[in-house]
Amino acid sequence: MPVEDYGGLTLHTQVVGAGGPPVVLVHGLLVGSLSTWYFAVAPALAREHRVIMYDLRGHGLSPVTPGGYGVRGQADDLARVVERHAGGEPVTLVGHSIGGAIGLRYALAHPERVARLVMIDTPLPVMAKNWIDRVRAASLPDLLKLLPGANHSLVGRGGRQLAKLAEKVVALTARTSLLDDLLAEPDFSDQELAAFARPLLLCYATRGGPVVTATRARLAARVPGARLVMIEGGHALPVEAPEPLVAAIREFRDG
Asked: pTM, whole model, 2 decimals?
């Protein structure tokens, strides 16, 4: 499992697939890691693509850093991964949750490097103050219950997996600037969305919460030519519904 140095930033990175146009998969916050993709979505896409995955800073096997967790900062991290592994080819970006916002920010800054963008159940703005206040006030069991629905089963089972998850969540929320960085991150403006000129696929869950539901409607209305696909499931679509998600990505690629 390669952990690579990107000019002073260390990220765990995996590349699978023998060839084909590059696809970069960007996971979501706190409970996400490249394993979000590794066991379902990535193998299916790797039949036709070179698939590039990495753990965001402080997630999975990427070391925790004191700061740099804003969307713009993490879009710069993504730029380092693309620069090293995409071979100069335009990439298809697939981002889940906040990973979709990171992909959108990168695509706005580097449109020539992006062939298309897929955003999966992404909320905008990426953080709400009331949610951050709840995270900061929560006990550990309540903190874990605030995380996306697919991980609630871990809370009931307990054990080593839960302990590792809890340790990572506490490290990120209590010992880094992650919450402050994301709260300070400005939302995407309507002007930025209207000027977005790359093909965009919106994959949203049928059981989405109010923030992602509002984001879905806003993106569909503001980004010219945006395509919307509703997928049965909750927020953790890459884990809950990998097959329909891969089918939507392939249809978008070929359409």
From this structure: 0.93
Token output for 81: 């991964």
Type of residue found at 78: L
- Helices 71-85 and 98-109 pack at an angle, to 10 degrees, of 70
Beta strand ranges found along 121-243 (DSSP E): 200-205, 227-231
Residues 28, 98 contacting (CB under 8 angstroms): yes
* Tokens (6 digits) for 77: 């991290």
- Side-chain-side CA neighbours of 154 within 13 Å: the count stands at 20
Can you read off the two tokens belonging to residue 215? 């984001």
**pLDDT mean by block of 10 residues, the chain; 255 residues:** 89 92 95 90 96 96 95 97 93 97 98 98 87 73 60 49 75 91 93 96 94 95 97 93 97 90
On the 0-12 / 13-18 / 19+ scale of CB atoms within 10 A, 20 is middle
